[in-house]
Design goal:
- The protein has helices at about 1-15, 40-50, 60-65, 105-110, 115-125, 125-130, 140-155.
- The protein has a single domain (about 35-155), classed as Cytochrome Bc1 Complex, Chain D, domain 2 (Orthogonal Bundle).
- It has about 160 residues and is mainly alpha-helical.
- It is globular and about 40 Å long.
- It is about 40% helix and about 0% strand.
């Protein structure tokens, strides 16, 4: 059991060390990440989503997100990997996650992420924004995209204001 835990920790350290996402230039102490949302808070976020996201199947969205996990994390304060951590992505300016080395195309893009933009991005990232470095081919099924985006809206939502 301990050997498994040590191997897991070593694997996680190696994956974090191999990440090409961090530019390593922060030099500032970061604030601790917010706690994850409770289940009740997640339900409240889901119930507040506008259409079409409010009709989503979150279980299908969670399964669809498995395609994203090899490059992204979703938790508060989670590390950047090949792709940036996606916690708090909605409302964030494109190319705006600190500590991640974005492509010039995303740095120069002038928009904030919302459900509609993410839907078009996930349909075909290279076509949506030529010059980005994401190698993912996309999620062709519109229902899977809707469910994935709704799941992200719930799972990556910031904590409610105190």
């Amino acid at each position: 059991m301990i050997r498994t835990a040590v191997l897991f920790a070593a694997s996680a350290a190696l994956l974090g060390g191999c990440s090409s996402g961090s530019d390593g230039a922060s030099g500032e102490a970061e604030a601790p990440p917010p706690p994850p949302l409770t289940e009740a808070q997640k339900v409240a976020v889901f119930e507040s989503l506008p259409a079409p996201w409010s009709a989503a199947d979150l279980d299908n969205g969670r399964r669809a997100a498995a395609r994203c996990r090899s490059c992204h994390t979703f938790t508060p304060g989670g590390p950047n990997m090949t792709g940036p951590n996606l916690h708090g992505v909605f409302g964030r300016k494109s190319g705006g996650k600190g500590g991640y080395n974005y492509s010039n195309a995303l740095k120069a893009a002038d928009f904030a992420w919302d459900g509609e933009r993410l839907d078009h991005w996930l349909e075909n990232p290279k076509q949506f924004l030529p010059g980005n470095k994401m190698s993912f081919a996309g999620v062709p099924d519109p229902t899977d995209r809707r469910d994935l985006i709704a799941w992200l809206m719930v799972e990556t939502a910031p904590p409610p204001a105190a």
